[in-house]
Amino acid sequence: MKAAGRSVRTRLRDRVAASDPGLLRLTAGLRTVGAIALTLAVLAVFGVDVKHLVAGAIAAMVATFAIREKERGPQAVTLALGLPVALASMTLSTLLASRVVIGDAVFVVLIFCAVFVRRFGDRGTALGLIGFQVYFVSLFVGAEASGLPGLWTAVAVAFASSAVVRFAVVPATPARILRLLRQAFRARLAQLIATQSELLDAGPDEIEKVLDRLRDGTARLHETALMIQSRLEEGTPDESTARLVQRRIADAEIAAERLGLLLLTARSAERADTLTLHLPGAPAPSVGRSPAPGEATEILRRDLAALRTLVLRPPAEARGIALSHLRNRLVGYRDEENLPEATAAVQDVFRGIGETARAVMGLRIALDGPQDESDDTPATTRSREELDAEDAAIDAGEETAPEEKRTGLRRPTTRAAVQVAVGSSLAIVGGEFLSTQRWYWAVLTCWIVFINTASTGEILVKGYRRLLGTVLGVVAGIVLAGVVGNHTWTAFGLVLVLIFAMFYTAPLSYTLMSFFVTAMLGLLYTLLHTYSLSVLLLRVEETALGAACGIVAAALVLPIRTDRRTNELLGTVLERLTDVTEGAVDQLSGGPAADLLDTARELDQALGDLRAATQPLTHPITPLRARRDTARYVVALLETCAYHARSLAATAELLPTHPSIAADPRLRGAVRRTVRNIEAIAARVADEDAETEVETGPSIASLLEPDTAGAPRYGRITGRVLRHLERLDEAVTGLARPLGVSVRTPK
């Protein structure tokens, strides 16, 4: 019974970890709700009125979500600095409330400063956010000068409550978050392997759905790997440990993605195109009845289940289920041990399972420490020795080049500050025409649509989502206000539920977050006895006005067009792709060792930025269908390029420590055409008038100079490198057509 209960708890824990990596959304929701609840409890003891309760609740929410630093010390400093900023902001707002022109001018200056100080990092962003939001709180509750001491007390209690909940009730150290993220990586890796096993039995009518789940699982695993990468510096004791974890995560991710491709190839008549795993809606390859004869299929199904068990099962349960036996059998496939009789493509799948098992073993050692080696087979021992050699070769890394500093209006923060100040001025004027009392809703919307956006298209999409969420939230607010009536504490209880839902869904859907915010505001209006249907409808009108003002300001004041933004990011991606490809091939050709994994992650980050920037182009409601399809195709091709570049980097990292992998100087010549093509495309992206072209021709493998007489043309590892280079070359050539670069085939 105990074992069964533990198994259920383990499965539930894995599902939660996979759905919310690092429990970051859960932590944000619990912290915010906890800070608000504690603030309300303390203020209720002193018998304050509803106005002060509402002010304290919103201030506690702001004090909690504004803090962005990852380490506890900087968080405490920012929270301490935020209190005087909040008190000063509330005082200004209250004292200037009766002086309309001066008050509006000060508000616009405050908005400009709140965006401008983002250049100073997380602390500047947090202090600017606190200053703006607390000014808004004062307007919302209708603060008066005579009531300032009580409001100061409410804000001070809110900040103190936020500190208690953050550091004592719901603590989250960088090491703990990293540990939870690693658990999420394992859970998502296991989910991906389970989806891959579905390829074995998927028929022609089911393969599309399985492929969609496979794409989603691969993307989720990659997302978790990037989240781990961003937390390594703070969450590990030293740089050597951070690099070790980084390498093992990268190995496991690459091995898992390659295994999916091998399984897909085993089901089709020809080698599967990597693009199939990256382009939504890409046609599935034609599949046969089964990837192998019945016996081999059963073994494959069994080994995929064993691999999933190897990923999930914690070390404490290892002895009970003979993990060593499973591990030894799977790792043995790397050395051609006990390969079942099957087609070459299916045997490649078994080898891929062996590579993934080896990567999982390395991941276990890096995350859980030394493992029991008493039952190791010779194949497992060799894999351990390889892993140990890699660990010993890890150095402290190299210093990165300083980023180019932008000055004046070239700074994104300066540009955004000017834009949001102009947009807010328009919103104030327009909002006053709609309502002299609640004009600030338009300003709030204008402010929010500029947060985390960098182009006119992004602001347009965000404004649309906020308006949609607001309209739906108004309907919910009407229903909830009718249900709650005059029951104050019932209303506060529902407010807490809605706030938790707001923070839990914020990273997933901006529309959902806006819905919960608006529904919550309907309850707050009820508490302040200012609720009416006309007030909620005014909220929709002010939101629409604020979004429109933000879009107008973004389009007319120092505009950054979506095309310009995406072209800049595309150029960065191509530059990073060149760095990774050249660095990996140079090392595989016998060149000096380089920090390839960091370079590969820089490529991933640049690609992630591009993917986010193309959302206005790929949004479902966009009327430009051809442009949407082109943007999706380009991003998918770049993801394919990134996968092959990561694989090349991972293989090159193994070179110094593996006696079975030897440098092949001929590879340096084979990659020259691909690099020239990437540079040609980058030149065309940077200058539309540039006369460039990409070159096609013989296969990459045929570009290798013949070896000495009687020697093999190339070994198994060089063959794998060539396959990655071949697919990379094809994907780069594929980028030429949608980006308007001509293609030349030499005669």
Give short descriptive properties of this protein.
two-stranded parallel ribbon, 747 residues, mainly alpha
Description:
The chain is mostly helical and 747 residues long. The protein is built from 27 helices and two strands. Strands 1-2 form a two-stranded parallel sheet. The longest helix has 30 residues, at 625-654.
Strand order of the largest sheet: 1-2
* Major beta sheet summary: 2 strands, parallel
Per DSSP E runs of 2 or more residues, the count of β-strands stands at 2
Using only CA atoms, what is the Rg? 29 Å
Distance between the termini: 73 Å
Bulk shape: globular
Helix segment tally = 27
Q: Regions with pLDDT < 50 over 5+ consecutive residues?
A: 1-5, 396-407, 708-714
How are helices and strands ordered from N to C?
A: HHHHHHHHHHHHHHHHHHHHHHHHHHEHE
- Average residue pLDDT: 83
Beta-strand level of the residues, as a percent range?
under 5%
The structural class is: mainly alpha
Indicate the percent of residues in helices: over 70%
Would you kindly provide a brief summary of this structure?
The chain is 71% helix and 1% strand. The chain is mostly helical.
Q: Strands, helices and their partners?
A:
Blueprint: H1 2-19, H2 24-45, H3 50-65, H4 72-95, H5 100-116, H6 121-141, H7 148-169, H8 174-198, H9 207-235, H10 239-267, H11 294-312, H12 323-332, H13 344-368, H14 378-393, H15 412-434, H16 440-449, H17 456-484, H18 488-505, H19 510-527, H20 533-556, H21 562-588, H22 596-613, H23 615-618, H24 625-654, H25 667-670, H26 672-686, E1 693-695, H27 716-736, E2 742-744
Parallel strand pairs: 1-2
